[in-house]
Specification:
alpha+beta; 2 domains; two-stranded antiparallel sheet; 6 strands
Amino acid sequence: MPDEVLWRRCSACKKQIATGAIYWVCSVSTCNRERTALAFCSVECWEVHLPSANHREAWAVEKRAPASALPARERSAGGDKGGRRLLVREEPKPTAPRVPREVLIIASRLKDYIRARSGYNTSDSVLDPLSEIVRRVCDEAIKNAQREGRITVLDRDLPKG
């Protein structure tokens, strides 16, 4: 490996993984976090981590090491100038939270309650409008918790009435 530059070491056997070389990562997200960042020089080395990882289902994913030893954010910031590296912290981009629009009511429990209370049957078409009412009450409770500077919605945040 005289011309090859060390990119990273194998997480199992500690052999060098050169820039531009093929390596393997675990398909499980906890093994691929920035802090963990497991990389393996072979599938056999990947298999070594399985007994201690306790994955339900996992496989080795083939990847190619970057062509340069500098991380991508350093290469995009101008690389290595004068023996010093410029580190650029990338701020996460704000994303709008995806609010689930599914039914929030347990149909069987609602139907059992109405039948026990009145002897009536309940149509499934009741579930969507009732879920909307629950969403409105929850949104109001969230606003009340925010007003009080909390990040936990409590029973006292629910609107009275």
